[in-house]
Design a protein that fits this description.
With 476 residues, the chain is α/β, with parallel strands linked by helices. It is built from 16 helices and 21 strands.
Amino acid sequence: MNPMKLPLWTPEALAAATGGALLGRWRSVGGIVNDTRELKSCDLFLALAGEARDGHDFVGAALKGGAAGALVSRIPEGLPEGAPLLLVPEVMPALEALGRAGRARASGMTALAVTGSVGKTSVKDALATIFAAQGATHASEKSFNNHWGAPITLARTPAATRWGVYEAGMNHAGELGPISRLIRPHLAVVTTVEAAHLEHFGGLEAIAEAKAEIFEGLEPGGAAILNRDNPWFDLLAERARAAGARAVGFGTHRAAEARLISVRLGPDHVEAEAEIQGLRLSWRVGAPGRHQALNSLAAITAAALAGADPGKAAAALARWSPGAGRGERQRVEFGPEGSEGGFLLIDESYNANPASARAALDVLSSAPLGPGGRRLAFFGDMLELGPEGPGLHAALAKEAAHAADLVYTAGPLMRNLHEALPPERRGGWFADSTALAQAAGAAVRAGDAAMVKGSKGSRMGPVVRALQARGAASPG
């Protein structure tokens, strides 16, 4: 049997890890979830309490849905006799203990933690692709990167894992340190430091200091993989060395240990060449944009330091492409089998800050067009930028006017971009994404390329769906 497919936890091991009391009739656990919509048979359901909902209210549904048991701090009403429960004083501390136990039992694993203002999910996913081609690999799902996502990912780690890749996110100072101490990474990647979550910080230096918390949990002899082109490299390198780690730079800087030599941009891919600690490598990534060349360089560098074969790592990236909302491309065809033509949809709707918005515009500027086609940008507000928000939105005008024929915007902050644009580039401003979605479908025509970008809280999903609804969507 594949050791990665063995039961994830026995009931007895769960109890030992959490200090909880086993009640009822249990089966071995195959997975761990905190959302009944993602539940599979034999999963452990976590009754976590959120701001709006208490997971204890869903324990009954989880057990009816096939859960092996539930981690609870109280016994919910209405459960059948013999319901399998792991009773603990508090669910969140018990989850953290389970995460620590999951990390500890994977004794042969090399752990990597990935953070950064932009690109951390892309680098994490690229690393997962690289390692999966070379050995038993476990990685964070989606963006499970916060105070509950990280311990869930650690608790899901099979004992036989060779490489573990853990995303670590934050929007306040003091959040990354505890996550890093849970992960105990051998390698920490900081993709970049940019203007994100500014409203919670005094400026970019404070963001850099918060990112440096990722070094707090580094194992002895660890390494930090840092963006050598970023203005905050020296600060991060100093903090990494203070934590006993080696600092390794990647980028175009002549002093970078992993130096990007050339980038060739294609309409749906990027080809890169780099010298990584004396080794010359070339590779292709199935995602356009110069930023993806840097993301993939960070991934190959980290993989090589983690003991993976760098040549095989570069080759594996040909099979990698960004996920939904992170540059995913779709072809939307009008009419039966595209009889009336269609357009290219670039979905960047997962999140946004000024740096990622500029990267998305760069991709749009080189997107292929059909006869008579135009490049259209649909933007929602970039949130959590504090007092600098209006100015940072307006500052996108030059890049937006260069990349797009028409720019459609939604939200009070994006009004600043709308007003800063040349009149001939203004597609229209709308109060919110719902109003923009109603207009988006009518805005596109055959041959166009349309890009959608905005922060999570701007809810740009309806705009993407409105564009998809114009025809039959397929991978682009």
